[in-house]
User: Fold this.
Amino acid sequence: MKLTEDKIRELSIQAISELGSNASPDAVKKLVEEKIRSSNDFPEGEMNLSSGRVILTSFGLNTTGIVSSISAALSEAQCDILDISQKIMQEFFTMIMMIDITNSPKDIKDLQEIMKSIAERLKVKIYLQHEDVFRFMHRI
Assistant:
């Protein structure tokens, strides 16, 4: 059986229902992965849900150095920026990046902590999440 979007949606809905108020994106992802691994319906090659790509979203009042600070930190962590979109609307800044973290020695939790410190310093919001979690959450 192929791991289709419909099956992922079904498993995600089940996971959210089972987790109730504890249904964070990481908890849902973990439970969906466990359900897939415990099922004999999917070949081993289809059980690797993590693409190694993450989505970074940043927004806030525009200040000098936002893109530079984020890009420098990602470069230092050996991450590859695959795509970037930014927009400045009067005094407001928004940016979305797709980043490949497969060659980084840092995991997503480390990168989230780095981005948290940058966000606090620049007084902006920065969210970093796995692409597959982003996709799962937006399929439901």
Strands lie at 53-61, 80-89, 92-100, 124-130. The chain has five helices and four strands.
